[in-house]
Amino acid sequence: MKCPRPIIEVARRIPEVSIGAVLELLADDPAAGPDLTAWCRMRGQTLVAADPPRFLVRREL
Amino acid sequence: MSQVFLDSSSGEPMLPAARQAWVDGQQAGWGDPARLHRPGRLAAQALDQAREVIAGAVGARPDEVVFTSSAAHSNQAAVTGLALGRRRVGPRIVTTAIDHSSVLAAAAAAGAAHTAVEVDHEGHVDLDRWIGAVQSTGTAAACIQVANHEVGTLQPYAEAAQVCQRAEVPLILDATASLGRIDLGDAGGWSVLTGWAGAFGGPASVGILVIKRNTRWRAPYPTDDYQGGRWPGVPDVPAIYAAAVALDSWLRSGHAVGKRQRDLIDQLRAGIAQRVPDADVAGDPVHRVPHLLTFSVLYVDGETLTLELDKAGFAVASGSACSASSEHPSHVLAAMGALTHGNVRIGLTWSTTAAEIERFLQVLPPVVAGIRATLGVS
Lengths: 61, 378
Fold this sequence. Notes:
The complex is a heterodimer of chains A (61) and B (378). Chain A is of the alpha+beta class and 61 residues long. Chain A has two helices and three strands, in the order H-E-H-E-E.
């Protein structure tokens, strides 16, 4: 899955987890790390772990 | 309607004066400048004039100016030559995380230790950490950009030069994105300066490498008698002469152009933020070179965006991984924590007009909305 698909999927699925819970993303796209960092900043979410290909995003709002 | 070229950071189209100078150079300056015959003497004269223009622009002496074949060659020669000349001091090369890829590649190859110091969200280097790295034992050389080539942010290059002078560590000042646009007469204590004529409307085949006297730089490749043993091979004098004429055009009348470009980029920054939802505009909005802007739009891929803008009449570059030139996203954007997908890199040219920028701002929102619709996001 190439950019920006992983970020689009995160945006689509984040409403499914409750606030404070963590969403896991598996992505081999080299842009996933930097783009997830930027997306979390733009959307007020928190990137709690980035260990490619595994990323954890905590829903804050 | 003809296409508007907004990719000057990949190479600005030759300025008319530079093109004319190239033609003149082919007629009168085509000889080998090392020869004593008339064509040789004419070429040597043109080469001397070109060195004087470059030297004057950066506060150096004409005999310190070397012409290479590209910015990448200049950067590689600068980094590798200082690493070689200073190898007894130690193996460390200090750069920022957002230096040009040619600097980072040369530093990684040349030094057993490469320290790439982090930058903040707008692209300013963490100066304290950079200074700390410069001052630590075993540092062969340091590098800093005057301005970043993608986002335009100015680095604290004058302070960096002072620190290097005190620490007696040679500084490479990468002036590629700033030559002719920022007054470098006061940049002070650097040891090696690099640049590229393509960045200011000269021929793409001319790289600039200025090595101050008494710098412990050694040619990291076999050399010959040309250019004081600092870059081998017969110099392409007509191209070099054209490069000097292009730079001279900026020095003489580029101030007004620069002011216009600064206003146009301000207009773009504000317009994009207002008209395009979820746009991430990168770089320092104030302390920057006049002509560069980078922004990214969420949920859009850079390749499609570049191609759609091309169809709509605008030539732009992209630092996205999915753009044609690379499998990896821009290391500059990644280091800054800026969005890397949906990226557009704009470089205004000498002749970019306000009407063209307004038209770009009208074209961009529907193009972005169209791509988002295709990808099923709104």
